[in-house]
Amino acid sequence: MNQRRSVFIISCLAFGYAFLYIPILSMIVFSFNASKLVTVWDSANSPTLKWYHSLLGNEEILDAAWISLKVAVINASGSVILGTLAGFALARFTQFRGRFTLNAMATAPLVMPEVITGLSLLLLFVAMEQLIGWPAGRGITTMTMSHMTFSMAYVTVVVQSRLATFDTALEEAAMDLGARPLKVFFVITLPIIFPAILSGWLLAFTLSWDDLVISSFTSGPGSSTLPMVVFSKVRLGVSPEINVLATLTIGTVTLIILGVSLWMARKHKLPKPAA
Amino acid sequence: MRRVPLAERFGISGRGLVALLPYLWLMLFFVVPFVIVLKISFADVDLAIPPYTPLVQWTEKNVLAIKLNFNNYEFLFTDKLYINAFLNSIKVAFLSTLLCLIVGYPMAYGIARSKPTTRNFLLLLVILPFWTSLLLRVYAWIGLLKANGVINNVLISVGLIHEPLTMLYTPFAMYVGIVYSYLPFLILPLYANLEKMDWQLLEAAEDLGCKPWQAFYKITLPLSRNGILAGSMLVFIPAVGEFVIPALLGGPNALMIGRILWDEFFSNRAWPVASAVAILLLLLLVPFMMWYQSIQARESAGTR
Amino acid sequence: MATPEGSAIKALPAAKATPWTDPNAKAYVQLDHITKSFGDLKAVDDVSLKIYKGEIFCLLGASGCGKTTLLRMLGGFETPSSGRIFIDGEDMTGVPPYERPVNMMFQSYALFPHMNVEQNVAFGLKQDRVPKAEIKERVATMLDLVKLGDFGKRKPDQLSGGQRQRVALARSLVKRPKLLLLDEPLGALDKKLREHTQFELISLQDKLGVTFVVVTHDQEEAMTLASRIGVMNHGEIVQAGTPSEIYEFPSSKFVADFIGSVNIFEGKLIEDEPEYVRIASPELGATIYVSHGISAAPEATVWAAVRPEKVFMSTAPPEGPDNVVRGAVQDIAYLGDLSIYLVKLPTGKVVRVTQPNTSRHAEAISWDQQVYLSWDATSPVVVTR
Chain C within 8 Å of A169 (Cβ-Cβ)? Predict the structure, then answer.
């Protein structure tokens, strides 16, 4: 019985993973293709690093990457603060005025189509500019604030679910031993849920770094992010520099994720003494 | 002596502040914008900056007029293009969700059933694409599906076909793109749900005479209902308003409402119409969003 | 409740006084009419209790009886809906846990996973801003006391269950609290370790002189640890007393049945004198003669409780018209050190008898054998509710 199930499930898994990874692998492979047509392999001149050189000398892309980085870092840090506060409030305080609203507002961005969020935020900034003069024009500030609004939803979910499995006896024990509630949060709760907060930060960073739609709505002249530049290029078709960018991105993400996973696995593999 | 319950021992001001900051932020940056969108959907296009007429105006001394222009909505309801776009978006999102379920459920099941060490690795493999830019992964399909792309080249060189297949800029490409991008969004919540299952229930069922497929149908499937619904909502709702994939893979005939909104806004500079589209899309999706919230609430209540 | 002459009460060592019998003794912990309601549900219902310094007081009851809620109120984690709590003369109702001279040992131990053993134990002292040198010294002394002197740098997930418990104990005792609360302290340990730890706890408490309040559902644990037990049911303390008082002189059917096993015979008072009572019990099919007086209304329905170990079983008929019945052995359970016999009476009632297996040559009783059951006039306890 186990055998039969296994074969079917294993083939589904194999197909699924192949489906997920063949496009990624093809992008990586063709980033070394000398031909400008990208998908037609030029065996005479390939593999080559010429497109790598080309990308790393491309001012437009480098500027956009820098802007994306700035926005992503500020966004991630701000989202973590807002998201942790919201996640904590929703996980711990079972009853307070406005809880339902906060819960709805904090989790709606998870499923909301980005075109709606993007449009509404832009119109907000326009109205604010009309009313009070700030923000003056759209740019990095408006983009960052927009990103924070939808990123914090993800952080809230991560923190809230981590706190749900958190043993409150630890906090009670700390209070019992003389620590006031605020101290308990910083000395006990925060260090223990730190991995969740870190993954929230990384999640918010990635969402901001990759975001296209909301950035397009809320950015201004001179503040094009990397996805925006990529989008304008790929609308016209394939481009070998984009393959290079994809390879570099995937490589970096893979290294970071592998690094984090290995680090976490090591942390938990401590020798257990005999009772 | 103070008689203050434990929760409020955080201090009335402390506890209030914790929830207050995110609350205010979201009010200002999430709720208020929707009100503004609503307001502008009732406005007229104007050659001004910003390109719409104000809602409230002083017409004469001491007379305040509120002009609600329903033309935009009338336009959307009567013009075939928009109705078709809405219906098509729902159809595409629905079919994509089904396809994601067909591909993703066995995967989630397989991961949940595997040994803990393998499981982490398999999960990692699902999460990795999720962390990689959506835009770039959709771009990958351009390279695969186009006329002189990888798939066509392989099929031609193997001799299965003689003329390249037209795959890019068709609804087919769009479905592939959506399923590809949203698959991890289905697998992860479904896996989270399946992982909590007590597999001994299946053994008990088989002990009582149930065949494996029956046991799956009668026990696993119903118990994973919340996971299926949560994952489906995470695919369906954003897919309805999806813009990037139809724009890059779909071709001119792929009528999706997200694209319409974008074009109205950026190409036509018709902010009021775009706003009206957004409002209608929102109204369409809110019931599904509320359904999603209730599924999540049920799921977390069940685990406590 | 009058204690009859001639009955043996467990003699306490001279050093351990019995302050609860002294009407002038001052209570160390006093609970005055404490009630705690959660909505419509009364978890604790009008509990008043005095606990004396140096006691080990056990709150004993089944799950849901309110004992944990009562403990949490002593610790400051719940506030009473009404009533006052006094600790060492001070009104502590409503004082938060971080301001109370009370410490708690949690059921799950609640050791901080990101700190090692030393840091865990030192945590409470740090909050009090005790100087570093003193902290180091006190932590080291305490760890030695619980025999974990070499484990200071280990993290909680590197310790066994028993070791973790000792860290939790050390952590809560190092602050020299006025009161130590223990929530099911032995629940997570296996049987052998439990017995060992019971005696360790008593010895530790004796050494340090801290007042303990223990919550448990395990009667054996309560009987071993406690200087006094408070039996709880539905939010009320139904009886408080020493283990022997509770066992030998339960005040109600509930308490009699809750602690150990017991045979309860319902009957009516037919003779009610100061020195004795006689009860006619149709359930038993005989009369019961109890050699002490009770306070009850004439012709009242009462219950006589007889412990299984106090029932004599013989094949030859014993003397006396009272306290004797005949029956047939229905079931025998051999437990090594003793055997349990279930004897069915002609009235249908089943009586439980335990006998130690003292000799290999004793008359072997077997199934379906007709036997006589009898007991001393001092053995039954009569309860009126």
Answer: yes
